[in-house]
Batch of 2 targets.
Target 1
Amino acid sequence: MACKTCELFDSGHRACGGCGAALAARLVTKAAGTDTIVVSSTGCMEVFSTPYPETAWKVPWIHSLFENAAAVASGIEAALKKQGRKEKIVIMAGDGATFDIGMICISGAFERGHDFTYICYDNEAYMNTGIQRSGATPYDASTTTSPAGSHSFGNKRPKKDMPAILAAHGAPYVATASIAYPADLMQKVEKAINTPGPCYVQVHAPCCTGWGFEGDQTIAIAKLAIETGLWVNFEMLDGKITRAKKVVRKPVTEYLKTQKRFRHLLSQNSRMRKLLPYRQWQTGTPRSTGSISNSRKNERINHFFRGFPFYLYHQDGNMILQHDLS
Amino acid sequence: MMEITEGSHAVAEAVRLCRPQVVSAYPITPQTHIVEALADFVANGTLDAEYITVENELSALSACVGASAAGSRAYSATTSQGLALMFEVCFNAAGMRLPIVMSIANRAMGAPLSIWNDQQDSISLRDSGWLQFYAEDNQEATDLHYIAYRVSEDPAVLLPSFVCFDGFILSHTYEPVDTLSQEDVDKYLPKFAPPERLDAKDPVSFGMYATPEYYLEFRYETDRALKGAKDVIAKAGKEFEALFGRDYSAPVEGYSLDDAETVIVAMGSICGTVKDAIDEMRAEGKKVGLLKIRVFRPFPTEEVAMFLKRAKRVAVLDKNISLGAKGATVLEVKDALYGSAIPVKGYILGLGGRDVRKRVIREIVSLVEKGQGDQFIGLRKEVL
């Protein structure tokens, strides 16, 4: 049961000041409550929260490997069932562990239908190893393995659509959330935990070190991601979108200009400035990707907005969802 | 009760009697019959376990890690490529001191792909912190499962175990096996009660991150526990003998060893062939004996040195090779005999299921008598 006044992820851990993932851990454990077992993947959170002999976790916690959190959780669930125990299982894994290296284990565990909640704290790159691109890295972001340069715009591929992948596995509850909206995040985590079966919540967790911004800007940047439509908070029940946060969308440059990883896109002298359709970003008309565009410019815009199980377009200044929410 | 049964089924029955609460495995030849039999037990209510049909071996052992950490007795079985896919998890389970037991139906490693027997798979994980038991026949293969759980779960050990038995040669062979009753096994193997487990009533953190200030001590303690397991095996083996009459208290076993001038050191099902060859050679007046290694980890260095001290020469058979060096067993035996003048020669044989017959053993004995060795045995002429 949720315990909003509990601090189950203790202070004194080794995260950077302004770490979005640390805040995610704090909010998730509040929403999950004391009767919870947390399974972590290898990554920043595991490292900053458990330098032996100290641990930040006041709930039972296990970390095995980078890729196997979903399989470890499957075994815990089976053991609890056999022992007649009622604790809830929450996985806390980064986007590299989730979108990339852990995909097989995740697919297997979701297909088998174990009862757990999988939280992906999504900071959009491999931060623990020094900011390398992952399948969750946004289009055109500069990372240490997708650096922007005279021959590169940065990351060449749009964000992988993990929520749709897991919804396609038959996950009863899939949601996205942001650390900038803690009440919404906690409500979604609680809902996921109380929904039987494998549930997925993808939490946008800005990384000041990896994205290149000051630690006091974390929440403001997380908010901007939502306000510019580059992160969408929504809920899916049994594969159908049932709720989404609508916004009056700000130009994406408002978000891009706050972070070093996108700086190359906005440089006045950039070769890319000529190529990229800034005017469209600013007035905001990313087209629906229902049909395939033959225009390279439009393709680039659409790639920016991908990574969610539906695509967005802008009409009269408001964000409209392609899916009918009625 | 004595029954003529297939090795895999005898092992599955022994596992059933050990009452694992979580079974997690993935099919791979020649292990498959074990996990099929266990699935059948669960489907028919004779084994009260959660059976997780994972999507690969990495998840098979990872689920055992979760189950064991949550306080349930966990079991898996694999071989060869499957074990290689578990490589990372093997080190992890031992490091977290989780007493999982896993059957290995030993098989060669690709490439080239081979489904047939040698011991390269489990030998390649000798440094992972797991106990390694090797069975000569199916009776031993079943009994070693009871012993393995008992030893692994001992609070002084808390380390996982491989029970290795040769793929096809044992796993698919029908032999008479004395299967214990549930009452007997319950008497021998207490309920799993680990000192720490994942429990909301008493939260602990498993699998933390260790800086250079602490890591070395974790490795030291794991090594100390694994070496100390030898005494626990002795105790558990004695108790097993008192109850059921078969003695597994020693990590090695001698055959015609007392006056033996030439001693063959071997591991697994090949020991049966070696014993037959020895009987023939003894009838001809040759003083040949066998030192069978049952426990490869912890390695019984002192016992090997003691049993071999009167030998004039030693021939070590390895169904594995550390490519670029030697077989794993011969390196251990040389280490055990370091400082003595006894010549030790290694022979690589039986890889990828190549049949090893009595005449091959006789050939090795004549080679070691001539001081020849450290070579492959039975190679096709065209590669020479």
Target 2
Amino acid sequence: MKDDKSKSELNYRDLTQSDKDLVAKLVRGGFSRREVLKLSMVTGVSLVAAEHLLFDGKAAIAATPKKGGSVRMASNLHGPDDQLDPILFTSTIDYTRGRATYNSLVQHANDLTPQPELATSFEPNSNATEWTFKLREGVTWHDGSKFTADDAVYSMNRHLGEGTTSVINSVLKSIKEFKKTGPYEMKAIMNSPNSDLPTLMGLFQTKIVKEGSTGGGIGTGPYVMDSFQPGVKSVHSRNNNYWREGANLDAIEITAITDPVARVNALISGDMQMITQPDPNAFRQIESADNVTLLSTPAAVQLGICILKNSEPGSNDDFVKGMQYIQDRERIVKRVLKGKGSLGNDTPVSFSHGPDFCKELPQRQFDPDKAKFHFKKSGYSSAELFVAPVTSGIEDTCLTAQANCAKIGFDLKLKKVPTDGYWGAVWMKEPLNVVTWNMRPTANSQMAIQFGPGGNWNDTFWNNDRMGELLRLSLAEINPDKRHAMYCEMQTLIHNGSGMVIPAFSNINDGIANNIMGMPTVPLGQLGGCEWPEFIWLA
Amino acid sequence: MMTRMVMQRIGIGFATLIVVSIIVFIATSILPGDVAQIVLGQSATPETLAALRAQLGLDQPGYIRYFSWLGNMVTGDLGISKAGGATISSLIGGRLGNTMMMAGWVAVISIPISIALGLWAAMHPGTWLDRIVTFGTLSLISVPEFFIATVAVLILAVELHWLPSTAYMTGEETFLELMKALAMPLITLVIVVSAQMIRMTRAGILNVMSSPYIEMAILKGVPRGRIIMRHAFYNAIGPIVNVIALNLAYLVSGVVIVETIFAYPGLAKLMIDGVQTRDLPLVQACAMIFCGTYVVLILFADIGSILSNPRLRNPK
């Protein structure tokens, strides 16, 4: 009876701001029983009332996007190489500016299904040699001119052909060209069928720019770019002529704070409302602060060790097996990643890739005895691994492996090198090196990039003809069971044959202020796949 | 005599700039990877690398690139950033202003404080006040600046919320807001450079105090304060202005740690970014500014010492 009374009395909007913050934090966390208990203790209401409060809070938070306000976001890296040209985007800060300024043909939903953006529909012909994109009418550029198929065809063709500098040129190899077939219609003419094509049209680099331009900050996106200083910051204000409902915030500022400690301090002290990639050692500091939340989105950000199959010692299969069995995967997820990660099974595909993930493939376990056996059989008693801090946790992962190797009498030497110049000088050159990859939207593109035979970034130089065949066939396969069988076969091939050691996947971790609502959770990049500018609002 | 020396020094200064530019050019070329590789990063393919290199003119031999840079530089054209495509002058413009503003405020605050404290300590050597100054400055010199900065942030920004933790400027703030935004890096830098200048001032004066003419003044019964202000200080100006000049030059070119910790967009960090992206024109432009600053400031310091010292003014 008493419970019922407090239930009718206490609602989310009656709470003080600090209690609202607490509710917001709990709603984001998915509120377990323990957290309901915590709320009950903090606010002094009964358990039933606390539970009611959370559901009420969830409804209030989910229901009403509010207009107005502004946020500042601090990424982890920026510099004079900050870009406004989408085909050269390589960093979170570029992706975010691109997302605020431009649109793609296709947009990724939280579950990675392709959604219409500037394209209203995308359909293949019967044998998937052509895809037709119907384009949105009534869209205007920030300078007032009209968006047409010419802009879209021009922008997409910049990725193709001789002399392109597009960073996704290889990813789009299955496309021959884009052709205008009407004022608001275009076709993609394929070299080979690709059922994942719509998803690829939503990559960070596929933003549509005005015909004849290289972007320059003039887009069709939810924000107009007011100023841009490479390596300093950019300022954006709401595009009031946006073709969709449009952004909720009046303005956003995008900058970077490269020092990890300073970045977290800026979030907690309120200078910044969003930050990317807090150091794992700062997770607890963020979680225990009252005004901010740690956002952790499961994703397939691999902590990878590449063992080159085309040279010693990687050409020896037993050596690779030894390196795979010596990974204490559970410990890496728990201690190195502070629980914000998931087990890796020496393939680049994780459950975040959806149904194409092969959960039937048995998880490889930490097994020092097997590792010792394989190392012994390989004839090697030592090896040198080049380590650069390419992703957070990779150095500690290698140190863990080193310690476990020492216990079984194998000498794993770690050669520490800087990230500066790493991709050109070390990666794909030294016999053992570390790697990370941004998560790709489909299992196929994720595997094709690293394990496609003869590919540019086949970073363990493992060339398997069956793998190449399956990568092609699976893109044309429509039967879901057959398709899954193909994906499982590919993951099994990589798991057993390649030179890749992937002990764990890291979540994507960010910190945001508690009053930020409507965060997307697209796992392809920091802060909801950089999709936040159009969707968030301030409570 | 003075003009001749100044002209000579300016000539040497230009020669220094040329030598430095050659060294920087060679050093940057030795680093692994070029700007095309860094920009394309993990996504580089042989084809896109070749295309970007051709686009940026990196397929030309090194000496041609150096001389075309030098030619443009002489006509005042700093060139275009190879990494991002912005003009170097636009990249440097705002940051040069920021750096000068920070260096200026630090100088305005720290130089009077340092000289006053240094003189004061020298007037009362051996007293507990002197010991506090000596011990305090020695401790602060020994502490690295990132430590001072981090402790200041933790106390003043994260715990007390008095000051912002980063020097984030919107460009539209009032003077007071600007001072608040800059307060943290200012405090850090004032502490770092003052400690050194205080010690140098004190040491310089005490050094002069042991010379015969001061002993004479003491024997004559001149009060200690007057001895220091009239006799000792002028003779100690030489080393003091030199240490001030070096500290000022450091404020322009060497405060990369403070710029990083407070995310302050200054020149030192820009040069580091330039090196990391192998953006040669950018590195060169920064190197010229830093080298020029040293040349000019040390010239001023030398003029200062000569003016304060009749023996240097009239060499045999």
